[in-house]
Amino acid sequence: MKQLDRLEKRFGRLAVPNLVPAIVIGQVAVYALAALQDARGRGPAALDVDALVQLRPDLVLRGQVWRVVTFLFEPPRYSLIFLLLHWYVLWFIGQALEQMWGAFRLTLYLLVGYAATVAVAFFLPPGMATNAYLYSSLFLAFASLYPDFVFHIYFVLPMKAKWLAAITWAVFALRVFTGGWPVFWLVLATVADYLLFFGYGAVKRLGEARRRQEFRAKAERAAKPIVHECRVCGLTNQMAPRTAFRYCSKCAGQQCYCPDHLGNHEHVV
Length: 269
Description:
Blueprint: H1 2-11, H2 19-40, H3 49-53, H4 57-60, H5 67-70, H6 80-101, H7 103-121, H8 132-145, E1 150-153, E2 157-160, H9 161-179, H10 181-190, H11 192-223, E3 246-247, E4 256-257, H12 259-262
Antiparallel strand pairs: 1-2, 3-4
Helix pairs in contact: 2-6, 6-7, 6-8, 7-10, 7-11, 8-9, 8-11, 9-10
């Protein structure tokens, strides 16, 4: 994170405080405008608010450049009750990350995912790029920093953030498997911020875990009790703890014998 520290010292003034709450407020505004429009009815000249904020690279190239920003405020296609829950969780996660990282790092995190999403969108079918994966990467960051935080699914079922993150990764993998390369590039672009911030640490932790496992295996091997086994009858010190086993000095190698066969055996040459 030394690079991030240097970037923050140089560009810290460009941080946007309360960025995630601003995005939530923007989504609420878009949803309210679309709902108001639906309530009044759509005339032939009515503007489709939902369609106007979507990221459509083909329309951006025709001059509708606002779409590269407004797609951040496109609300997900949920019912109102789930939308309220989505906005609450997004607000909470954004505030928690800003408190942990500071405004600059959170701004940079979102900026990386945003820029990658916009860039990839120009190579995807029109209308495919959304902000869903981008905001999912916010949750993945939260789960990495607060793995044991407990969410209550439907306000009832408790589940730790790290397990919800595992489910999120599984959903990503399933969508890539069913959606092919376009979905793969979209997912990769929108989690680029997570990989940038947490990828090195994850690789480092995997290496440390492997070294701990190797050390533990060596320690277990070293801690195993020495077994003395009679070369003739197979009796061991575990079978007869009080038996005094001896090694024959006339046999080649370390040849062990019980008292009954120490003086009554063929020497190993």
